[in-house]
From TrEMBL:
Source domain of life: Eukaryota
A GO molecular function held by the record: protein kinase activity
All residue ranges annotated as the Serine-threonine/tyrosine-protein kinase catalytic domain in the record: 225-295
Keyword Phosphoprotein attached: no
Natural source organism: Scyliorhinus torazame (Cloudy catshark)
Record lineage: Eukaryota, Metazoa, Chordata, Craniata, Vertebrata
Protein name, per record: Uncharacterized protein
Chain ranges of the Mixed lineage kinase domain: 10-141
Keyword list, A-Z: Coiled coil
GO biological process, one term: cell surface receptor signaling pathway
Coiled-coil ranges per UniProt: 134-190
Length: 297
């Protein structure tokens, strides 16, 4: 295999360096250390421009430098990939990678032994390099701590919102269960005895009846309804010719008492009478089959 000439290495070095410069502008983390690495590469490229001959020792140094720059390019590129942003949680483990790259650049700078010796010696002087690297690490770590804190606060806030939503949901479920229990209990609250033990005069608010009668005759209408939640039949008298409410009440009660007196399984049981302010006459009785009710007309 034919070894590349010094000029061929120089061309490749500049191409890789150009890629590194571009990637340094795209990194998502470790900005300071990437920029410091870029600055040192720029300094190394100045003496490279002066190389005109093809001495083996120079070509060897350039070849080594090319390999370092390619490694640096791959390393910096890893910080531009958003999908690998999880590196923020492993940032402290990459100190040695930056340190290793800087050490290799330092070795190349010494090996070239070319122009700008004073500038190179100043830039890559051990104490200066370590101080700069320490400052870069501290600034990058502060930036990483800030990002990690923001992520932690966001996660904590999300957990609180989820817990609150769960608590609210549980309260709603408890209220719904109470409502269901109350409804079931109301359905189960069926009287075990008749609503009244004697004929009484009922108030209109004690009686609830359906709007539509289930049986009609010339003189009566029968409605299904409830008396104190007890199912009853309600008989409404039509075409009543009395104008005196007291007289109506007296006759009405007398007829109810007569029916009560002969009460048997085959005779309708009477619970009470109701005369409202409008003169509507109602009779509360046991809910029976229509045929039996007709026999009471």
């Amino acid at each position: 295999l034919v070894e590349d000439t010094s000029m061929e290495y120089v061309e490749k070095i500049f191409n890789v360096a150009k890629d590194i410069y571009s990637l340094c502008n795209e990194v998502k983390v470790n900005h300071k250390r990437c920029r410091r690495l870029k600055a040192r590469i720029e300094c190394l490229l100045k003496p490279v421009e002066t190389i005109k001959n093809e001495e083996l020792t120079v070509a060897k140094a350039l070849k080594e430098m090319l390999g370092i720059l390619e490694n640096a390019k791959d390393f910096i590129e890893s910080f531009t990939n958003k999908c690998r942003f999880a590196k923020v949680f492993k940032a402290y483990e990459i100190k040695e990678d930056f340190s290793h790259l800087n050490e290799r650049l330092n070795d190349v700078a010494l090996a070239l032994g070319l122009a700008l010796q004073t500038e190179l010696a100043s830039i890559f002087k051990g104490e200066t390099r370590k101080r700069e690297d320490k400052q870069d690490i501290e600034e990058d770590e502060r930036d990483l701590d800030r990002v990690a804190k923001i992520l932690e606060e966001a996660l904590h806030s999300m957990e609180e919102r989820i817990q609150q939503a769960v608590n609210d949901g549980m309260e709603e479920i408890k209220m719904d269960l109470k409502d269901i229990k109350r409804i079931i209990e109301s359905y189960n609250e069926k009287p075990s005895v008749h609503p009244v033990q004697d004929i009484v005069e009922l108030k209109s608010e004690d009686i609830e009846m359906q709007n539509k009668p289930f049986l009609e005759t010339d003189n009566f209408k029968y409605y299904k309804g409830t008396l104190h939640k007890f199912p009853v039949a309600i008989k409404r008298f039509l075409n009543v010719g009395f104008s005196n409410v007291e007289e109506i009440r007296k006759i009405f009660r007398k007829e109810a008492e007569t029916m009560k007196h002969f009460e048997s399984p085959n005779i309708v049981r009477i619970y009470g009478i109701c005369i409202d302010e409008k003169g509507k006459l109602l009779l509360g009785m046991k809910l029976m089959e229509e045929q039996k009710l007709k026999s009471c007309n």
